[in-house]
Amino acid sequence: MADYEWLTPIREMVGRQYGRIIAWDEVNPAMVRQWCEIMGVDNPLYTDADYAKRSEFGELVAPPSMLQSWCEAGFYRDSYAPGSTEDNPYTVLKLIEAQGYPSVVAVNSELTFERYVKMGEKLYYTTRFDAISEEKVTALGTGFFVTLVMTYFSMNGAGTDGCDEQVGELLFRVFKFKPANPVTPKTTADDGIAKIKRPKPGISDDTRFFWEGCEQGELRIQHCQACDKLQHPPAPVCMHCHSFELDYHIASGKGSLYSFVVMHYPEVPPFEYPNPIGLVELEEGIRMPVGLIGVTKDQLQIGMALEVCFETFDEELTLPQFKPVASPIAPAQA
Ligand code: ZN
Question: How far is the CA of 223 from the centre of ligand 1 (A)?
Fold first, then answer.
């Protein structure tokens, strides 16, 4: 496939080196311990100082596969440790994107390491724009494979000629592409096939009373006969006293907005977007996640008074939804 003209300056960038990104912290046992916990790694070489002392290393070392984590940015976007350079090795992806290839997916990551790193070492990496492929057509879409190589060093001057010593390398390849089938969610049928408006819940013996209540216009909350407490969502036992003696109370349907989120993306069928979802605190004191209707996202306010209304979807599923009290919007179907 012939190259595009705009690719020429990008191909000329191949081989370019980008500057240092320096680790915020020296290699340290606290980060190692947390990483091992999260990853389920229980090798005592990384966390047990006495064990490590008797090993061939004579001291604690960090897991090699942890190499990348030492030089990650801080919590906030692009917060790199002082001394790090600002040139951006991902510039090439932006340049490709500007030509109409908006999507990206990581396809390869290969980590090689020269040796174990020890506590107290300060690491940094540099990045090389290694390669860009011809334009490729894949099931995902059409685009380019871009390869970056990060080289990790220890700031100890122990390499050849007093340079810093290379401790590992990370090859990272992404596919930058235009999607083959852009997703355009639809909530109305245009092919003669009725599309559902809500997914169906899984209903069990423990939850059936709740859904049957909805059909009858009742908001039923599970109640423990032993300790008189309420709970939601319904469960096989009381979460407070573990009693099986459960029935339900009919809630007033009034409450207030305890918290909310407005879903914009990704647009997952069959819901409409933006999709406001509230956590309602009922008068009875329990909280329930619900769809919010009759209110725009700008009108949503923590603490606002809400009341239930029941709407039936797909002619078979009745859901409780909440709307502002005194909202002129009537439920679509009582
Ligand atoms: Zn109980």
Answer: 8
| Burial (0-12, 13-18, 19+ Cβ within 10 Å), 248 | middle
Using the mean position of ligand 1's atoms as its centre, give its distance from the Cα of residue 239 in Å: 7
Quick one: pLDDT at residue 76? 81
Q: Would you call 213 helix, strand, or coil by DSSP?
A: helix
pLDDT less than 70: residues of the chain: 1-2, 181-194, 327-334
pLDDT tens digits, one per residue of 62-121: 999 999 999 998 888 788 999 999 888 888 999 999 999 988 888 889 999 999 999 999
CA of 238 to the centre of ligand 1 (A): 5
Class of domain 7-27+62-179 as given by CATH: alpha beta
**229 C-alpha vs ligand 1 centroid, how far in Å?**
6
Tell me, in angstroms, the distance from the centre of ligand 1 to residue 269's CA: 38
Express each pLDDT in 298-327 by its tens digit: 999 999 999 999 999 888 899 999 999 975
Question: Ligand 1 center to residue 76 CA distance, Å?
Answer: 44
List of residues 6+ apart from 248 with CB closer than 8 A: 209, 210, 213, 220, 221, 222, 223
Ligand 1 centre from 111 Cα, in Å? 53
